[in-house]
Amino acid sequence: MNGMGVRRWESGDNFSAETQRIVAATEAMMAATAHHLSEGIENLRLKAIVHELPDFLYVKDRDGRFVFANAVMARSHGLENAAEIAGKRDFDLFDFETARRHFDIEQEIMSGGEPRIDMEELVPLPDGATMCRLTSKIPLRNDRGEVVGLIGVSRDITGRKRQEELYRGQANLLEMIARNEPLPMILEALVLMIERQMTGISGSVLLLDSEGTRLYHGAAPNLPGAYSRMIDGVAIGPKVGSCGTAAWRGEIIIVEDVMADPLWEDFRAMVSQFGFRSCWSTPICTSQKNVLGTFALYSKETRRPTEHEMKLVALATHIAGIAIERKRVDDRIHFMAHHDDLTGLPNRAFLKERMAKILDQARRNNRKVTVAYIDLDNFKEINDTSGHAAGDEVLKETAARMANCVRASDMVVRLGGDEFLVVLVHQSGHDAGIMRRLRDLQKAISKPVRSGVSEIAVTSSIGIAAFPWDGATPEELLANADRAMYRAKQLGRNTLQYHDGVVSNSVDLPLSEQEELRQAIIANQLFLLYQPQVDVATGRITGLEALVRWNHPTKGVIPPVNFIPLAEETGLIVPLGLWVLNEACRQARAWQDMGLTPLTIAVNVSPKQFADPDFASHVAEAIDRHRLNARWLELEVTESVIMHDAARALAIMLSLRALGLRLSIDDFGSGYSSLAALKTFPFDRLKMDRSLVEALPADKTAVAIASAVISLAQTLKLSVLAEGVETDAQLEFLRHARCEEAQGYRFSKPVAPEEIVVMLLARGA
Q1: Does residue 219 contact residue 204 with C-beta atoms inside 8 Å?
Q2: In what order do the strands lie in the sheet with 496-498?
């Protein structure tokens, strides 16, 4: 060997004569070069210069054998001594495909005699990595001009190529963000970009939820899917691996060995399945340092990240922060454009966007869709009396209740003001129970809303339309539901009304009963019976209670227990109650016109009737219409009617008393009864509940309570009437306790108006 790493020819070598000439020419060239440079470089020999070059330098013969290579070329192939590469071919150093590619190109150069300048070559390295070289290969000629080999010069441009790729990747990511592409796509492209800059590294992005408590999958294109699923939704904390801890602390967490670090103590068994040994996690933050998620790098080696790797991580978290913040801003803008600011419910724009899709899907799947148009009754009065802040509280609470009453597939929309729309998507073509669900919804709305120290009573009128019978388009359905809602208003509010044209087999039996009851009110199928109220001491008839019955065209007479609950639920109790009021006034006037002694007629008032702001005017109209002196009319209300909104109830009762009629509190003694109600409200009479009376006189507790109620009422100057009196023993107790009046089967069952006439005439009235 000579000092340049070019081996001299010896008789035992297999080099051809041409190769020997190349060696001789190369030695002569180098010797001449050394001679010319010796004066400039003094003691520094040409050998040192060539081997210290950062670029790859080599000479090959016509068969592709290395004749010479400098030190950096040898080291790239894992050889310590440059001389060891002499005589080897690319097929000895690379895989077959790589070697064949290099051989073909070099043979073309030597055959054609034309150099190839600045070629980019991908060269596999012994450690499995790939190097990118910028290579020039030049034909080597002898003194006769014949090509005897080639000279190759290469430069490692792997770092430059990666930097160029990084710049392109950044530009591509920013373009994706600007185009508002889906966040998962952006994050996946980001992770892949960073992974290409490293060796043996897998990346992951986890996103922190809106509550700031859990991390969810964002992107992890090369992590095992099973591992990604295991950590999806992990709660953050001070000792939750690298990512959970980084999100908790808001700082970079470097774990060199997950098998030894205490932060991974609870997760070692899980991570060991996948062979990861180190994990470095960096929080992704907003410009205000609020954590949005984490960017993590995993390695199967126990090590720390290099300075270059940490620079890449800083770049990645910066871009990820931009993408996530942009997505959140876009989501917020979209939410604000499609949702109501006050309630957070979807708005008309959202409804328009979604409704057509809902109907199209229902059409394809042969399903139904029910829309309920909901308007809060007398909402203006709430704003006027309680203030707009209280009105806003009512709207927000109502919205929340409605949202809690529907399924995930359904939708609640605020149309504006106090109007809402509920879209119920049937789960099948014959989804029953829609009416029940709507009643439950109306009940939820009607619960009092607490505002400050008071409670506000809320009721609603609901109009219902069903796809496909009541409309094939969103516009038709909304219009028909709106019309049905206005009809519900006209029928006294706090009712549910279907669109007139509906012919639905999906609605269960209560709907058909509702329609029948509505027809009963309109077609005069209702009638009143009257039960006498008598003086306990004398047995004289002092008054009558009007009790409604339904003369069904096919079922016969139906008692109130079978239809009043339905009327209460559907809101038909309001028009039904108005009919009872007017009929009782008419009958009382008719008896007086017959010359009978005037008697007080007691009429029950439902909570929904009493909540109607026009109730007092309806009573006044009934009295005037039938020319009845108000003193002969008594309205019976239960304690529940007045306790929802005491101030409002008191105002209504005072306006009723101003008409001259009497007021009584009904069912007193059933359950919890407030003594304050007797003092606060202007009652004339107390009606002791039948559940208390029927226990008399055997039950000592009932005796004590009844005696106390009678004594209290007399102290407050209220007359007392006991309901449900059926036995002589009960009557005797009441007489002894100085109860003034009684009512029940002991005296008479409810009877028709003609029988009342007979009773009164028999008693000389």
Answers
A1: yes
A2: 411-416, 419-425, 369-376, 460-467, 496-498
> Distance of CA 615 to CAs 478, 515, 645, Å?
30, 24, 15
String of b and e for 407-436 (b: at least 16 CB within 10 Å)? eeebbbbbbeebebbbbbbbeeeeeeebbe
- Per-residue pLDDT tens over the stretch 462-520: 999 988 888 889 999 999 999 889 888 877 778 888 886 543 333 333 445 777 887 88
Tokens of 434: 């829609």
What is the model's pLDDT at position 25? 53
If one compares 697 and 47, the residue with the highest pLDDT of the two is: 697
β-pairing verdict for 633-638 and 600-604: parallel
Which residues face 604 on adjacent strands? Answer: 636
pLDDT tens for residues 351-397? Answer: 988 998 999 988 888 888 999 999 998 888 888 888 888 899 999 99
CA dihedral 332, 336, 337, 341 (to 10 degrees): 170
Distances (CA, A) of 510 to 217, 248, 398, 469: 48, 55, 25, 20
pLDDT at 219: 95
Question: Among the residues of 571-638, which ranges form H helices?
Answer: 573-593, 607-611, 615-625
Give the C-alpha separation, 359 to 351, whole Å: 12
Distance from C-alpha of 482 to C-alpha of 421, rounded to nearest angstrom: 10
Q: Which residue has the tokens 């008409």?
A: 659
Nearest to 334 by CA among 353, 357, 321: 353
Q: What CA–CA distance (Å, rounded) separates 632 from 588?
A: 8
Nearest to 374 by CA among 449, 459, 447: 459
pLDDT for the residue 31: 54
pTM of the model as a whole: 0.49
Task: Give the 3-state secondary structure of residue 635.
Answer: strand
> What is the C-alpha separation between 250 and 289, in angstroms, rounded?
8
